[in-house]
Specification:
Layout: H1 2-8, H2 10-30, H3 34-38, H4 41-53, H5 62-90
Helix pairs in contact: 1-2, 2-4, 2-5, 4-5
């Protein structure tokens, strides 16, 4: 996936990797279930937001870079808040 993103846009690949990394690291603070972290569930939303805001939908400048990083943090926090509601659906 990262190779395909890199061919399309190296800048978007960097933001996608940052989103996955930061989302996963924040996920380790929010949950004790390591299976969710290792499956990539916590980094996926950060990856999507960072890739879309940092290189695909917006012109990159300082403000859009800060917006992309803030969206990673916000989506991970929102996932933490909504996770109990979806935990009943998964089990």
């Amino acid at each position: 996936m990262y190779l395909a993103l890199f061919v399309y846009s190296p800048l978007m690949t960097g933001f996608a990797y940052l989103g996955a990394l930061l989302g996963t690291l924040l996920g380790t603070l929010f949950t004790t279930n390591s299976a969710e972290i290792y499956s990539g569930a916590w980094g996926y939303n950060g990856l999507l937001c960072a890739a879309s805001l940092g290189g695909f939908c917006f012109v990159l400048n300082f403000q859009s870079t800060v917006l992309a990083v803030a969206s990673i943090i916000f989506t991970t926090a929102l996932q933490h808040v909504l996770n109990p509601a979806f935990a009943t659906v998964r089990h």
